[in-house]
Amino acid sequence: MTLLNKDHFIELDRQDPLAQFREEFELPEEHIYLNGNSLGVMPKASKEKARKVVEQEWGQGLIRSWNTADWIHLPRRVGDKIAGIVGAAPGEVIVADSTSVNLFKLAAAALRLRPNRHKILSEPGNFPTDLYILQGLERFMDGKVHLHTQPRQEILDAIDDDTALVVLTHVHYKSGAMFNMAEITRKAHEKGALILWDLSHSTGAVPVALNNVEADFAIGCGYKYLNGGPGAPGFLFVAQRHQAELEQPLSGWFGHANAFAMSDTYEPAPGIERTLCGTTPVVGASLLEVGVDIMAAADMGRIREKSLKMSELFIALVEQRLADHGFGLATSKRPAERGSQVSLTHEHGFAIMQALIKRNIVGDFRAPDIMRFGFTPLYVRYIDIWNCIDALAQIMEIAEWDRPEFKKITAVT
Amino acid sequence: MTLLNKDHFIELDRQDPLAQFREEFELPEEHIYLNGNSLGVMPKASKEKARKVVEQEWGQGLIRSWNTADWIHLPRRVGDKIAGIVGAAPGEVIVADSTSVNLFKLAAAALRLRPNRHKILSEPGNFPTDLYILQGLERFMDGKVHLHTQPRQEILDAIDDDTALVVLTHVHYKSGAMFNMAEITRKAHEKGALILWDLSHSTGAVPVALNNVEADFAIGCGYKYLNGGPGAPGFLFVAQRHQAELEQPLSGWFGHANAFAMSDTYEPAPGIERTLCGTTPVVGASLLEVGVDIMAAADMGRIREKSLKMSELFIALVEQRLADHGFGLATSKRPAERGSQVSLTHEHGFAIMQALIKRNIVGDFRAPDIMRFGFTPLYVRYIDIWNCIDALAQIMEIAEWDRPEFKKITAVT
C-alpha cells in the first residue's frame, strides 16, 4: 500500500453514501468517538422521544398509555424492527430485560430441549457476563449440566454428542474477532446440539443472517451499535420452530398468554412473548426504538463496506505511523474474521488511552493491555480515523502518555 | 357516623400537613387520579431529570458518565434511599431489573439456604407474577421443591418443618388487605423457614419495618407509590445476615466482585451488589431516584395517617351514598388490615369504572368484579374522595354505566 495521506480520508468522506446519517446523531463538540461498541451516541430524536414518553405518555396519559401509547406492544414492535437488522422474521425477536437476563432465560430453555445432554460449550475469554450467567445456571442445576470452555480454534471439534448448547459471542468484545456463524451453527446441528449467538457486538455493526444460517437462539445489546441509551433493554431471538415448545424459567406475568386475566396458573403466551418476564421498561424501550429506527433505515451492506474500509485504513495507518512504538494488533487482518472494531495491544495501553481521551478522542481500554477502537459507520467519519492515528503518533513521539495523571486507574473506563 | 358533607373534606385539605407535596407532582388537568397503586404520577422534577440523563449524561458525557455521573453506583445509591422508606439499613436494598426477575433471584437463593426443605408457601390469589415466577422455579428445579398455596386465614398453620420459604405480598393488589408482617415472619422463623415479602403495594404506602420484624428478603416495585415512571426498575432487600452466603442464579457481570477485571470466573460482590445481574438501566433508575427522593422527604407516619383517613372516609361515603346500588366492600374495615387502597365489588364493575374514567376519575378494574381505588396521600386530596363518590352516585342513579361504549373491553385498563 502506498503512503496514506489526509486528503485521501477527506475524499472518502466526500464520497461516503452513509455520510448524511451523521446528521441524525448529536456528538459532543470536537470529539472523535470510537467507543460506540461500548455505548452508542445519542440520536437527536432521542431528546424529543424522552420528552414525549415522560411528559406526555407518562405525565398526561398515565395508566391509559398502556393502550393509547401502545406500551403493551412496545417489546414486540421494537423486536420486529430489530428482526429486520439481524436476518430474523417478525415474531422471532423481542425486547426485554438485560442481555444477561435474556441469556439465562434462553440457555435454561435450550437445556430443557436437550434433556439428555450435559454440556454447555463456550470459549474462554468470552464476554464475562456470558460465562458468569452460564456458571450460575450450572450451579443452579446442581451438576446436571456443566460449562465447558474450549479455545476458539478448537471449538468445532469440541462440539460432541453430549453437547446440549453452544454459546458464543459472534464478534469478540475485546479482539473484535468474528466467528463464522454459518459453519459453527451447521456443526452444532450435525451433532444434535443447539446454538445461541450473542450478537452484542454484531447487531448494527455487521450483517447477521440468523435464519439463513438456521440459528436457534440469539441475544443482543441495545446500547451499543443500536444507540438505545445507557443500560437500554436487551433483545432476544428464538427461531420460530422452537417457540411452541420453549419453556423458560423466568415465567413472569408479561409472558403469560393472558396476563390481565390475573389467573393463578402460568400459561405461556403462544409466541415470542413467552420470553417476557416483568413489566416492560417503557422509557428505556422507547428510547431504544429511536436508535433501532435509524439503524433499520440504513443499508447493512453499506455499513459493512464502510466499517471494513475504516478498520483496514486504521490498521494500515498503525503500520505506517506507529511501527516503532510497540503496538501489537489483536484483531485479524482478514475481513471475514473482523467485526467493526480494531484492538491494539500495548504494555502502556491504559495510559496511552487516557492521553487520547484527554485529547477528546474516545476509545477504551480492557485489561490487561487492550486498546479498543470501535467504528460506527453511521456517525464516524474517515477523517476521524486519520486524526485518531495522528494524535496517537504525537502522543507516542513525545511520550505524552508517561504522566502520572494518565496512570491513575478510575472505576470504569 | 353523622352524615358527611363536602365542607368537611375541604376543611381536611386545609389542615393537611402533607398538602404541599401535591405541588411536586404534575397531574393531568381536571383529573382525579386514584390509580397510583398501579402507576404513580410524574414528579415535576422528572422532566428535568430525564433531560439531564438523556441530553447531558448520555448525549454529552457518553461513556465517561459511568464515572462522572456516577452511573456505576446508581443501583446502590437509590437502594440506600429506599432502605430508609422500608425500615432497612444502608447496604441492604438495591435497585435492579423488574420485580419479577428480583423475585426469581431471591427465591432461588433462599432455597439454597434451606437445601433440605421442599416447600414454598404462598397464597392463592397472590399477585399473579409472584405465583408464576415460583411456578417457573418449581419446574426448573425438577420437582425438588413444590409451590403450595394456602388461603391467608390458614397461612400461619401451613408453615411447617418442610417449608423452605414463605412468599407473601404484604398488601394485596386486589383487595388491599394487609398481612401482619411481624406475626407471620415470627412464625416462619419459629419453623426454621425463611420469608420473602413482596412490598409492591406497600412501599411508600404504609409503614414497613423490615429489620424490626427481622424479615429475610423483600422485593418491591418502582412505578407505583414510588412514582418512578412506567416500567421503572424494581428493588430488592436482603437482610445483612444473609448476604455473605447468598448465591443467586442470575450471576451477571454487574454482580461480580470486580466486573471490570473481566475475568472468566464469577466471584460474587461481597454485599448486596451480588444480587445485580446485567448493566444498570440508567435512564429508568435515574427517574426512579426522583420519585424516591420525594417519598424519602415525607413522613411515613403522616402518610399512613392520611391514607387511613382517606380510605375510612371513602368507605363511609360508599355506605352513605351508594347503599342501594349493589356494591360490596372487598377491603377490610379494620385499619391494621388495610393498605392504601379500597376495593369495591360490583357485577357491572368494569362498565362503572369506564364511566368514571370518562369523567376523568381514574381507578381501575380487576377481573372478575373488582373496582380499585388507590389513595396516594402525597398528591390525592380529601376533596377528591368526595368528588369520586359524588360522581359514582350520579353514575349509578342515572345508570350512566349502562351504555355500550363502557362495556367494550380493551387490552389493558
TrEMBL record, chains A, B:
<dbReference type="InterPro" id="IPR015421">
    <property type="entry name" value="PyrdxlP-dep_Trfase_major"/>
</dbReference>
<dbReference type="InterPro" id="IPR010111">
    <property type="entry name" value="Kynureninase"/>
</dbReference>
<dbReference type="GO" id="GO:0043420">
    <property type="term" value="P:anthranilate metabolic process"/>
</dbReference>
<feature type="binding site">
    <location>
        <position position="198"/>
    </location>
    <ligand>
        <name>pyridoxal 5'-phosphate</name>
    </ligand>
</feature>
<feature type="binding site">
    <location>
        <position position="99"/>
    </location>
    <ligand>
        <name>pyridoxal 5'-phosphate</name>
    </ligand>
</feature>
<dbReference type="GO" id="GO:0019441">
    <property type="term" value="P:L-tryptophan catabolic process to kynurenine"/>
</dbReference>
<comment type="function">
    <text>Catalyzes the cleavage of L-kynurenine (L-Kyn) and L-3-hydroxykynurenine (L-3OHKyn) into anthranilic acid (AA) and 3-hydroxyanthranilic acid (3-OHAA), respectively.</text>
</comment>
<dbReference type="InterPro" id="IPR015422">
    <property type="entry name" value="PyrdxlP-dep_Trfase_small"/>
</dbReference>
<feature type="binding site">
    <location>
        <position position="201"/>
    </location>
    <ligand>
        <name>pyridoxal 5'-phosphate</name>
    </ligand>
</feature>
<comment type="pathway">
    <text>Amino-acid degradation; L-kynurenine degradation; L-alanine and anthranilate from L-kynurenine: step 1/1.</text>
</comment>
<dbReference type="GO" id="GO:0009435">
    <property type="term" value="P:NAD+ biosynthetic process"/>
</dbReference>
<feature type="modified residue" description="N6-(pyridoxal phosphate)lysine">
    <location>
        <position position="224"/>
    </location>
</feature>
<dbReference type="GO" id="GO:0030429">
    <property type="term" value="F:kynureninase activity"/>
</dbReference>
<feature type="binding site">
    <location>
        <position position="223"/>
    </location>
    <ligand>
        <name>pyridoxal 5'-phosphate</name>
    </ligand>
</feature>
<feature type="binding site">
    <location>
        <position position="253"/>
    </location>
    <ligand>
        <name>pyridoxal 5'-phosphate</name>
    </ligand>
</feature>
<comment type="similarity">
    <text>Belongs to the kynureninase family.</text>
</comment>
<dbReference type="GO" id="GO:0097053">
    <property type="term" value="P:L-kynurenine catabolic process"/>
</dbReference>
<keyword id="KW-0663">Pyridoxal phosphate</keyword>
<dbReference type="GO" id="GO:0005737">
    <property type="term" value="C:cytoplasm"/>
</dbReference>
<protein>
    <recommendedName>
        <fullName>Kynureninase</fullName>
        <ecNumber>3.7.1.3</ecNumber>
    </recommendedName>
</protein>
<dbReference type="GO" id="GO:0019805">
    <property type="term" value="P:quinolinate biosynthetic process"/>
</dbReference>
<dbReference type="Pfam" id="PF22580">
    <property type="entry name" value="KYNU_C"/>
</dbReference>
<keyword id="KW-0378">Hydrolase</keyword>
<keyword id="KW-0662">Pyridine nucleotide biosynthesis</keyword>
<comment type="subunit">
    <text>Homodimer.</text>
</comment>
<dbReference type="InterPro" id="IPR015424">
    <property type="entry name" value="PyrdxlP-dep_Trfase"/>
</dbReference>
<feature type="binding site">
    <location>
        <begin position="127"/>
        <end position="130"/>
    </location>
    <ligand>
        <name>pyridoxal 5'-phosphate</name>
    </ligand>
</feature>
<feature type="binding site">
    <location>
        <position position="279"/>
    </location>
    <ligand>
        <name>pyridoxal 5'-phosphate</name>
    </ligand>
</feature>
<feature type="binding site">
    <location>
        <position position="100"/>
    </location>
    <ligand>
        <name>pyridoxal 5'-phosphate</name>
    </ligand>
</feature>
<feature type="binding site">
    <location>
        <position position="169"/>
    </location>
    <ligand>
        <name>pyridoxal 5'-phosphate</name>
    </ligand>
</feature>
<comment type="pathway">
    <text>Cofactor biosynthesis; NAD(+) biosynthesis; quinolinate from L-kynurenine: step 2/3.</text>
</comment>
<dbReference type="GO" id="GO:0030170">
    <property type="term" value="F:pyridoxal phosphate binding"/>
</dbReference>
